[in-house]
Q: What sequence folds into this?
DNA sequence: AGTTTGACAGTAT
DNA sequence: GATACTGCCAAAC
């Protein structure tokens, strides 16, 4: 297996680990996760990682939204409205325009330690 | 090997 | 604020 594939896999696992640490009732963003992992230009790859998340990783991907609070990954959770329903069930509130109230629910992750 | 795509984000207006 | 435009980079084609 090529080395670059290996680093990509490690990045993905780091994403899942960090996402598992998002508290119930909170959300964070793709860019924030990338930054916390020391890869500030890889926000899109965070979305990519979540998109292909294996079941066994069991990371609450619905708690990741885009910068402005839009549920850009909604399509990955079945019927329209599912992702929002999951968040609402955890206590996340939305604005009238359908975006998450980031002022109340944005969560800033603690930087992840580097792995050997 | 070149092009397109996508669960993004920064900057300018 | 909201658009529009630009940078970004791994995967898929």
A:
């Amino acid at each position: 297996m090529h080395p670059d594939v290996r680093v990509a896999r490690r990045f993905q696992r780091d994403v899942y680990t960090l996402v598992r640490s998002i508290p119930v009732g909170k959300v964070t963003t793709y860019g924030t996760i990338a930054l916390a992992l020391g890869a500030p230009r890889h926000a899109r790859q965070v979305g990519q990682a979540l998109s292909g998340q294996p079941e066994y990783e069991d990371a609450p991907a619905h708690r990741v939204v885009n910068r402005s609070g839009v549920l850009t990954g909604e399509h990955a959770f079945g019927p329209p409205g599912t992702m929002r329903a999951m968040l609402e069930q955890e206590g996340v509130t939305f604005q009238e325009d359908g975006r998450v109230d980031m002022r109340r629910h944005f969560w800033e992750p603690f930087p992840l330690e580097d792995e050997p």
